[in-house]
Design a protein that fits this description.
Blueprint lengths: L3 H8 L13 H5 L11 H6 L13 H14 L3 H14 L1 H10 L1 H9 L5
Helix pairs in contact: 5-6, 6-7
């Protein structure tokens, strides 16, 4: 049985605010919460990130486009694997967004040991 509340929750694609006590560098050091330049000005002030991230705000879409271009520039499958691993280590949100958007292309890179 699907209620109206469940339908609304399924359609809601807005980003949920971060919750927790981490502030400043602690937020940036945790790849589960680090959104890099996608933090809004309001989030930057609330989380103590002003001056710790570049001043320009990029949306998740813009970040994903830039990350995909950087991925495509890598000269080998090994370099692509290293790039994705580094991205995962610093920004899980962006990593999963990127892999999800390009699943067919990236899964062999992520789950196969490159032989380059």
């Amino acid at each position: 049985m699907t209620t109206d509340r469940n339908k609304t929750a399924e359609r809601d694609t807005t980003r949920k605010p971060l919750r927790g006590t981490a502030r400043g560098r602690a937020v940036l050091a945790d790849p589960r919460f680090n959104r890099g330049t996608a933090f809004t000005d309001e989030e930057r002030r609330a989380l103590g990130l002003v001056g710790l991230v570049p001043p320009r705000v990029l949306t998740q879409d813009e970040q994903a486009d830039r990350a995909y271009a950087q991925f495509r520039e890598q000269p080998s499958d090994l370099a692509k694997n290293v790039y994705l691993t580094a991205l995962h280590d610093r920004n899980e949100v962006l990593f999963y967004r990127l892999v999800g958007d390009h699943l067919e292309e990236m899964l062999p890179i992520v789950y196969t040991v490159p032989k380059d």
